[in-house]
Amino acid sequence: MIDLALLPVYLTTVVALLLIPGPDMLLIASSSLSYGRKVGVYASFGNATSGLILTLLAAMGVSALVAMNPFALEVLRVLGGAYLLKMGWDCMRSSAADAPEIEQQNNLAKLLYRRAVMSNLLNPKALIFFVLFLPQFVSTQLSASSGEQMLALGLLLNVMGLLFNLLLVALVGTLGKPLLKNDKFRTYQNKFMGLIFFALAIWLLASQVQSIA
Question: How far apart are CA 109 and CA 57, in angstroms?
């Protein structure tokens, strides 16, 4: 369901996009640095889950309908910014005693998974990206429908993105190991994540989202 003539260009473009720092990379890297590789892995899977949902919506044409509605995009932007601000506030008001112990990583990993899913789904730019990017590689030379081709292209994008993020987690998580054993850092690790969420909220709320109509 992917035109082999377009595949090399598509793969090259995806790799280039993955190497560009963005909010997803920041969230995954900071999670790995602050709480360890396990949490970073869960955040990576959260990002992949949201990407899969957006792929399905794009293939069904639902995301295009939303992306053509300026009001819907604005609502998504505000909701996404408010959600990130809440996450930031929750982290900032945590005390030093709330710094997670190793045995608490399971709950923390699940929490970061949910946060990664929601932060991407509530980002209208992510939705517009799937609407604008995937159709560029839909071929008229194949018998498969445009929806089927977009589904295949989106799945490939998500697999490559997940592998890239897991590599990032391995690298950053290894570098951050000494920090997790540092009592002073552990005192402020929730505050650090709070600042990350605030930065993501400001980025989203300050950005301009254009419809594709």
Answer: 26
Task: Please report, as a single letter, which amino acid is at residue 170.
Answer: A
H helices of 61-137, where? 62-67, 70-92, 105-121, 124-133
Nearest-angstrom CA–CA distance, 54 and 44: 15
CA angle 28, 93, 103 (to 5 degrees): 55
31 closest CA partner among 22, 40, 23, 41: 40
* The residue to which tokens 């490559």 are assigned: 160
| CA pair distance 34, 22, nearest whole angstrom | 18
Q: What local confidence, expressed as pLDDT, does residue 174 receive?
A: 81
74-96 tens-digit pLDDT: 888 899 889 889 988 988 887 65
